[in-house]
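ok trying again, last paste got cut off:
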Amino acid sequence: MLGSTTVTTTYFVLKKYIGGSEAKKHIKKLLLVFDVAPVDRTVLTDALLLDFNDYEDAVLHEAALKAGAEGIVTRDQTGFGNATLRIYSPEELLKLVQSMRSSS
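nice, full thing came through this time. structure:
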């Protein structure tokens, strides 16, 4: 599952490096594979109540929580110091996925 801001940030970065047309192709593929956690008034309101320094991180956390996610993958783990969900670095998630593959 992805956060909506994850999708927009990914598009922004891809556009910078490979152009808008190619970026859109990759975003379309991404959206075929992953669901997007809804961001509604409740998510936005509840995020205001969290003790996070960054409101965008708080919104991502609340959207993930309400969507039933088990964790969040981020390069900025310090921004999620007060998270109630498990926080993974990209490297930790990769190791987890690799260990799951080898055990099956």
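cool. The longest helix spans residues 4-18. The chain is about 60% helix and 10% strand.
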